Structures
1.
Amino acid sequence: MSFHWPLTRIEKTVSHNGKSVSQECAMASAPTRIRLSDVAAAAEVSVATASKALNGTGRMTEETRRRVRDVADALGFRPNAMARALSSQRSLTVGLITNDSYGRFTLPVMSGLSNALVDDGISVLMSNVEDDPVAARRHLDTMLDRQVDGLVVTGRRIDTALPLDLAEVPIPVVYAFTAAPENAVSLTADDAQGARLATDWLSGLGRGRLAHVTGPEEFAAARIRAAAFRDVAGPGAPVLHGDWSEAWGHAAIGRLWGQGARPDGIFCGSDQIARGVVDALRERGVDVPGDVSIVGFDNWSIVAAATRPPLTTVDMGLGGIGREAGRLVRALIEGGDVAPGPRRLPCRLVVRDSCGGSAPAAG
Amino acid sequence: MSFHWPLTRIEKTVSHNGKSVSQECAMASAPTRIRLSDVAAAAEVSVATASKALNGTGRMTEETRRRVRDVADALGFRPNAMARALSSQRSLTVGLITNDSYGRFTLPVMSGLSNALVDDGISVLMSNVEDDPVAARRHLDTMLDRQVDGLVVTGRRIDTALPLDLAEVPIPVVYAFTAAPENAVSLTADDAQGARLATDWLSGLGRGRLAHVTGPEEFAAARIRAAAFRDVAGPGAPVLHGDWSEAWGHAAIGRLWGQGARPDGIFCGSDQIARGVVDALRERGVDVPGDVSIVGFDNWSIVAAATRPPLTTVDMGLGGIGREAGRLVRALIEGGDVAPGPRRLPCRLVVRDSCGGSAPAAG
DNA sequence: CGACTCGCCGGAAACGTTTACGACGCTACC
DNA sequence: GGTAGCGTCGTAAACGTTTCCGGCGAGTCG
């Protein structure tokens, strides 16, 4: 049921002290929002009862409750969130802080988060703090002034922490897709499972000489994925660390081919790397996916789809991470006990054309 | 001055009815925020005076005002935004609605917006409404419940409108970088100026046979840029409309070269198109920037920097658009008279390597 | 038939600000 | 010295909810 501003006059029947007064409020020019007291008056109950009726609290005849609800619906009543917040000491608001200036990771997370919370009437207060601690502190303070009930922190990539110390913040904090303190509630993609998914897919297609081209070894995600890759592909399978760029993907092919290693399946640590790899192979006259199958990571569709051929890649489900962050922060706010520590959400494989074949034999 | 939670005990000196009572509130476990009444008590004035002192309203001795301010600082007082909102009927909050799921355009805008507003204590409530009108309505209603003072609407590209009718919304709306109703306050990049910048740059480098490869003609931005391009390059200069993709840039080169037209300067409607163009030229053995100079549009650094050679491109200043949107929405909220209609903010050229040469002769 | 119980509902006090209005003390002038 | 006038500050009523607690009606049992 959606709310529309009252464009007509509204009859308020106020019954007070036994005598019933009918008054009319003209709202041609400045439409006043319906207040709870208006609903109460129209339903001929007290404000207290109206509040309880609508919130499902308190005890009263089912008939009364229904009547209040019907009246509220008819009048298009929507509670004033400010008043509600002031009174209940809960703002029904969570803050989302990010340092991902491009939004590539953050926006899907924020979207999942806000969708997970909007049905509870919770909205998301967002701000982007570059890497300036002072500005970050100012944004955080503004959120705290606004009595946010919880905080979600996200970032541009795992391993780059925000310039903020949230240890003393008096509200629940959930870290999503960013570096988190040891004992915090945090959420990331399951890199190991994602890497296995990719590697299994390659070997399922009959690719036996696998290689992994990925980001810097300092990144936990890169290390975890590399380890999972070796679990499947064998301890001797080559793993090349570089940076997260196309240029590195390009260079890595030069290095592999220069060494005479000729993998027939390459799992890449990001779609950008994969794109560099595919381009380098094409330039060398190596056919993808004929000669070599490629799997990327991120499912950054703008890159994955523009690559020729379009990339088969691992999707981290950022939206899902956002939704789960919403669930967790809500649980924490409501006082539920949520075990601290990292949580990993499964990735899924998005199949496009860069691997050839169809499903692996095993199905 | 940043706010830190009080970790020590706080002496409150309450003077009431002439007699002064000193009481102590222990806050070892649950730190209570300092309220205005605490400040007032400590400064030995009334709550009203304290409020006026801190807000710079009302009249009082400069000494009193300073004393209250000093006490507030010392106590680390931060006003409760909910109470303030309820009382003053202004939530000090603006909503940002987008339908840009990737965040490529939206996040810079939101960042500029929130930075423009944070110093006034205004924060940004954000939500991403895909293209579902029902969900969009729900998000909007939640924001209105929260009494947002204004709304900024942004999108993934000019010309795709949000599935929302904001005509009846009782608060100011500013459209930033998205399709807007005729008489609304809206903000976009100055496409004509940006296109002239690019084209001038190319001819300044001595390129005389210019072409323009851009997005669909249905997009106003594409039409405007094309017109500006022809203003500079001459009415006969070829303009090729396609979609906003790399593939189209690639294909466009095939078409141009197939026709025997051999431009020596190409202005592209997006960095993605430019990338396709550059790749296609390389594949044909045409040297960029030796034989042909390329200019892109968007300064999407992740694409522009990954292209070989890195793209010289037009930056639309999305952050600036966000900041200006903040200024405008604040002005509207404060009742200032802002002329309706579209506003265009200047673009700037970011010079990388895809044009060769250095600055044009004219400087 | 009266008292006790129980369930439904209402009165009123919060929540922490802002702000209209009025009181009070001071100076200055007649 | 009384009073007008001005400038400071305090009292109290908002803002729109939630929630504690108590009253009051009806039903039941002695």
2.
Amino acid sequence: MEAVMNLSRKEQVIRMAAELFREKGYAASSMRDLAQKLGIEAASLYSHIKSKEEILRSLCFDMAAEFRKSLEDVEKQNVSASEKLRLGIIGHISVMAKDLTASAVFMNEHRHLSGPFLRDFLLLRINYINRFKAIIEEGTKNGEFKENIDTKLSVMTLFSSLNWMPQWYNPDGKIDSVNIGQQLSDMLVNGLKKQKA
Amino acid sequence: MEAVMNLSRKEQVIRMAAELFREKGYAASSMRDLAQKLGIEAASLYSHIKSKEEILRSLCFDMAAEFRKSLEDVEKQNVSASEKLRLGIIGHISVMAKDLTASAVFMNEHRHLSGPFLRDFLLLRINYINRFKAIIEEGTKNGEFKENIDTKLSVMTLFSSLNWMPQWYNPDGKIDSVNIGQQLSDMLVNGLKKQKA
DNA sequence: GTTTTTAACTAACATCTGTTAGCCGTATTA
DNA sequence: TAATACGGCTAACAGATGTTAGTTAAAAAC
């Protein structure tokens, strides 16, 4: 149970760091800034974390794991491509909505990961994207979507929309995350779907 | 005429800075890094620019001006809302394609502008977005688009897609910028357009 | 051919950076 | 009650940061 308390305080540090990184960016955030937000001295942070980058790593890879998990659940389902896409979008947005701050860091600050960690992160990311791409391709092959679609453009458009949400979405507003996922997928899918002219 | 040469060298500095800021981010880019890219000493940079932030300012505000100009040309035209949207999208992408590096900086690094400059920038930006929003609203009012659209979501989706382009678009690839704008607007507009069921 | 401009240099500044070492009070555990 | 771990502290480091001052060689303008 010491471990629990330890984690609890450590996660408090990480959460504050996430807020800071989101506001000012990773590189512009100093350990002294972070310490001040917590009301302690900079050196005291190192009782809880090993380095500044360790914080970024845990933020990025924890989010990546949640995104992955969410998509895996969707892939198991035996439904049409457009339905899979819809569920994938809603899942992604739900994961983001659970921690918008970490999501913003995940997507804006990951490039400050060093060397092999950055590499690993990018591999996870491209894998995730490719699995969405596969869903779209499945839809074009079985006739759900238009045949002359540029898959890369489509999937990048989808991802752009998803990834910028933390920048403008207000979780206290009138529109909740499932609703927003629903509308977004409607908007994109109906743009992709072959129309019965 | 001295001014011309001066500008020419100054712009060389700014261009290199744009590349650096894009790769590493503004905060993580040092003046010594920049100097090294140019083969000179850090202090020598100050013969050409007043400060690090001045570089960022000129990058951000120059791009903002070009976006604005492009949209103004479109607004003058007397065409349908969906056509205006199409032209606006193509215009935006064309401006970006003319300088993808500066575009990436414009959109990822503007937050490091200080105080009043950041404020001015954000005002320009929201104005630009609102003018796109107005086009979409025009379309919903005159029956071109579905009535039950969430305008904010739509315009944010559009912007996300546009703004992330510099991250993945390869200008040497097979698909040119007008083509991409065409496809993107097709994808979005046909998602918005009322469908003759 | 003298003056001016351009574009670079060296040296140095004050401050900020991430991080380590070693110490100490308080609360939990044995 | 003694031992341990938690969470903080101060002091300090070695290096990086943006920027200024003053200088100088070469090129352009007069």
